[in-house]
Amino acid sequence: SKNKGRNTYTFFNTELAEYASSRLDTEIALRDALNNNEFELFYQPQICLKTCMVVGVEALLRWKRTGGQFVSPAVFIPLAEEINIISDITNWVMDTAAKQAVAWHDRLHMWVPIAVNLSGKDIHRDLPQRLKKVQYDNDIDPKTLVLEVTEGSIINNIDVAIETLEEVREQGYSVALDDFGTGFSSLHYLSKFPIDKLKIDKSFVDNIASSPKSAAVTAAIVQVGQCLELKIVAEGVEDLQQLQVLRAMGCNIAQGYYYSKPLPADDCLQFIEREKLA
Ligand code: C2E
Ligand code: CA
Ligand code: CA
Ligand code: CA
């Protein structure tokens, strides 16, 4: 009936309004998160499959809102990109990772390679200058930072991205292609990208022990990477079976809950001291 239709309309309208206001709340809080010191980096160890030693870590951003509620980066990173505060956040991430590298260097007398995630909007002509500032402010060896970029963020602006990434590699930083295999133009562009590492997406790793077809595709990715002289990192490794399959394929490095969840800096240092840094 007409009446029912109107109620339905009202219902959706309320839902929408609630959604919009919670989004607006989140947006307002996110704009203040940097100033309010609500961000923290967690670090997930990456393990060499030959030596079983730690060869680096990935820095993963955590946002703890006032009140203690954690928000997933999968939610707030896209929002930060939309409201154009992502470059401030990335600057904070790079600077905080650099400070952590210095603190760990003091303890271990080695530079721990720390991978930071870049957004597509960061892969621009000013990135070398931003990295120079991070380097001079913290007095780091550039080899301690690894920049993780996704295929999608390169392809949007491919010529600028290739120039930019070539320049940061000349500065001494290394570059990893993240979430490999989830894009569409992977193989065509792979040989053109100025990168050092290839990260095989978790969605491949999930099925390698159970599905021969997934295993075949993953093995092919590992081989292509090897031919291009890239180090191959498998992400999202959760069990020993997956690890054994990846090792047999010749994958170099693994990261995932099997070894460790992302950890606060102090816990990660303990992990590194226990398992040893290569
Ligand atoms: P990503 O770069 O692909 O990071 C890997 C994600 O997988 C992380 O989720 C990590 O906690 C999770 N993970 C690692 N090992 C396992 C595992 O064995 N099993 C399962 N189920 N998950 C695992 P997280 O920390 O929630 O980050 C999600 C995404 O948010 C990241 O995906 C990345 O795209 C983005 N992100 C995180 N930190 C930053 C940052 O500082 N800047 C930018 N631009 N993006 C970030
Ligand atoms: Ca990543
Ligand atoms: Ca990834
Ligand atoms: Ca992923």
Automatic annotation (TrEMBL):
Main location per the UniProt record: membrane
Domain EAL: 23-276
A cellular component annotation (GO) from this entry: plasma membrane
Subcellular location: Cell membrane
Keyword Zinc listed: no
Keyword Transmembrane helix part of the UniProt annotation: yes
GO MF annotation: an example: catalytic activity
Alphabetical UniProt keywords: Cell membrane, Membrane, Transmembrane, Transmembrane helix
Record-given protein name: EAL domain-containing protein
Span within the parent record: 687 to 964 of 973
